[in-house]
């Protein structure tokens, strides 16, 4: 399975992946998933928005109303790694294969899921698919989202042939009906498991985080003839804001990143009229996150006064603190032949966080990442660790069926 996926959406220059939702590479992955489910006799369900589930074991389940879901996402960030998302989907299918080899007849229907636009790389809203499924975001809100080219979400959906599905955007069947547990396996996105010497970890929770659009406007003018004291240059406001965000995060043990900016008109010999920067901010608790963003905005406004520019801040996507069901985490983490799996917090967002917030008891398993790098082509996991991950997921699903 890994070999079949690895060329899809891969850049020849960087070796990274460009798998934005409703574009060619991601559609190819969705077709691959439909084929993989069909080959295994899993009954496919979709919501017309790109979220998919392949169901196994419904006919023999003795607990048909306690559905168990496991999966992740197939989309990537721009120039992302191979593992963030697809490892959870491939491992879920492989875990079903493994359980069948072991002769397991699941007492609960087990679904393998793919959630659409987890990264928010095209429409800006992280975990779009799982938010729509859980009602955390409404279709009325989502239908207004536009990508960088101005394409609205319903038009992007209409432009693709969603394989095996009825692409009636907005008319979602309830894919989560009867789901009482969710398990997401994911590549680890830091180096905690490397340092602890474990191949597998279990998530305790997710830091609150958000994306905030800083719009800074000034006055376009000639780069040569405009005296320095006569300028209203939003690039200066942006530069000071980025430094302030970095300083504020370092002082408070938080994370703050400006990873994307747009400059208008983006000419070498003109003072820009507008700079838009996206702040990604993450903190241990929600109050600290609000305070961090407020502090960065204050610094931006102060600098704007000096520069003669204006600043407006819009929150595009905010996710609260997630604490995964602690008893479930302990149950899954404990009592393995190799000893307990470590239980760790993460600063990365996941569909698992959205489902947990919606009240579905949720577990996350992490697979060790030797590079510790993620959201980059350098993201990594070894084949032996990935296979340990498949066994860990199969063991976890079996436990949850007992
Ligand atoms: C998603 O991977 C995020 O943490 O931004
Ligand atoms: Mn990611
Ligand atoms: Mn992910």
UniProtKB/TrEMBL annotation:
<feature type="binding site">
    <location>
        <position position="282"/>
    </location>
    <ligand>
        <name>allantoate</name>
    </ligand>
</feature>
<feature type="binding site">
    <location>
        <position position="84"/>
    </location>
    <ligand>
        <name>Zn(2+) 1</name>
    </ligand>
</feature>
<dbReference type="GO" id="GO:0016813">
    <property type="term" value="F:hydrolase activity, acting on carbon-nitrogen (but not peptide) bonds, in linear amidines"/>
</dbReference>
<feature type="binding site">
    <location>
        <position position="375"/>
    </location>
    <ligand>
        <name>Zn(2+) 2</name>
    </ligand>
</feature>
<feature type="binding site">
    <location>
        <position position="186"/>
    </location>
    <ligand>
        <name>Zn(2+) 1</name>
    </ligand>
</feature>
<dbReference type="GO" id="GO:0050538">
    <property type="term" value="F:N-carbamoyl-L-amino-acid hydrolase activity"/>
</dbReference>
<keyword id="KW-0479">Metal-binding</keyword>
<protein>
    <submittedName>
        <fullName>N-carbamoyl-L-amino acid hydrolase</fullName>
        <ecNumber>3.5.1.87</ecNumber>
    </submittedName>
</protein>
<keyword id="KW-0862">Zinc</keyword>
<comment type="similarity">
    <text>Belongs to the peptidase M20 family.</text>
</comment>
<feature type="binding site">
    <location>
        <position position="73"/>
    </location>
    <ligand>
        <name>Zn(2+) 1</name>
    </ligand>
</feature>
<feature type="binding site">
    <location>
        <position position="119"/>
    </location>
    <ligand>
        <name>Zn(2+) 2</name>
    </ligand>
</feature>
<feature type="binding site">
    <location>
        <position position="211"/>
    </location>
    <ligand>
        <name>allantoate</name>
    </ligand>
</feature>
<dbReference type="InterPro" id="IPR010158">
    <property type="entry name" value="Amidase_Cbmase"/>
</dbReference>
<dbReference type="GO" id="GO:0046872">
    <property type="term" value="F:metal ion binding"/>
</dbReference>
<dbReference type="InterPro" id="IPR036264">
    <property type="entry name" value="Bact_exopeptidase_dim_dom"/>
</dbReference>
<feature type="binding site">
    <location>
        <position position="269"/>
    </location>
    <ligand>
        <name>allantoate</name>
    </ligand>
</feature>
<feature type="binding site">
    <location>
        <position position="84"/>
    </location>
    <ligand>
        <name>Zn(2+) 2</name>
    </ligand>
</feature>
<dbReference type="Pfam" id="PF01546">
    <property type="entry name" value="Peptidase_M20"/>
</dbReference>
<dbReference type="InterPro" id="IPR002933">
    <property type="entry name" value="Peptidase_M20"/>
</dbReference>
<keyword id="KW-0378">Hydrolase</keyword>
């Amino acid at each position: 399975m890994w070999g079949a996926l690895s060329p899809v959406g891969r850049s020849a220059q960087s070796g990274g992946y460009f798998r934005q939702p409703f574009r060619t590479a991601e559609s190819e992955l969705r077709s691959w998933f439909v084929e993989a489910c069909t080959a295994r006799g899993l009954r496919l369900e979709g919501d017309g928005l790109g979220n998919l589930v392949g169901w196994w074991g419904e006919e023999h389940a003795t607990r048909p109303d306690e559905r168990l879901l496991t999966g992740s996402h197939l989309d990537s960030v721009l120039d992302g790694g191979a593992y963030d998302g697809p490892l959870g989907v491939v491992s879920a299918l492989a875990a079903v294969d493994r359980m069948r080899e072991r002769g397991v007849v699941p007492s609960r229907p087990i679904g393998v899921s793919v959630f659409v636009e987890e990264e928010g790389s095209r429409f800006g809203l992280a975990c779009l698919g799982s938010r729509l499924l859980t009602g955390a975001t409404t279709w009325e809100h989502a239908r207004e989202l536009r990508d960088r080219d101005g394409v609205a979400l319903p038009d992007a959906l209409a432009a693709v042939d969603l394989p095996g599905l009825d692409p009636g955007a907005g008319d979602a069947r309830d894919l989560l009906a009867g789901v009482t547990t969710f398990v997401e396996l994911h590549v680890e996105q830091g180096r905690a498991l490397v340092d602890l010497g474990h191949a597998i970890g279990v998530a305790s929770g997710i830091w609150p985080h958000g994306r905030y659009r800083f719009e800074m406007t000034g006055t376009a003018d000639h780069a040569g003839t405009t005296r320095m004291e006569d300028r209203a240059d939003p690039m200066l406001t942006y530069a000071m804001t980025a430094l302030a965000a970095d300083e504020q995060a370092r002082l408070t043990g938080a994370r703050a990143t400006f990873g994307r900016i747009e400059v208008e008109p983006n000419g070498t010999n003109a003072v820009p009229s507008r700079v838009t920067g996206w702040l990604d901010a993450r903190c241990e608790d929600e109050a600290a996150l609000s305070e961090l963003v407020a502090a960065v905005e204050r610094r931006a406004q102060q600098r704007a006064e000096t520069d003669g520019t204006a600043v407006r801040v819009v929150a595009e996507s905010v996710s609260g603190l997630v604490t995964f069901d602690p008893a479930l985490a302990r149950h899954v983490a404990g009592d393995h032949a190799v000893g307990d799996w470590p239980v760790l917090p993460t600063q990365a967002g996941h569909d698992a966080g959205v489902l947990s917030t919606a009240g579905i008891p949720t577990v996350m398993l992490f697979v060790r990442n030797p590079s510790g790098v993620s959201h980059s082509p350098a993201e990594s996991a070894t084949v032996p660790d990935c296979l340990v991950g498949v066994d860990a997921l199969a063991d976890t699903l079996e436990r949850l069926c007992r």
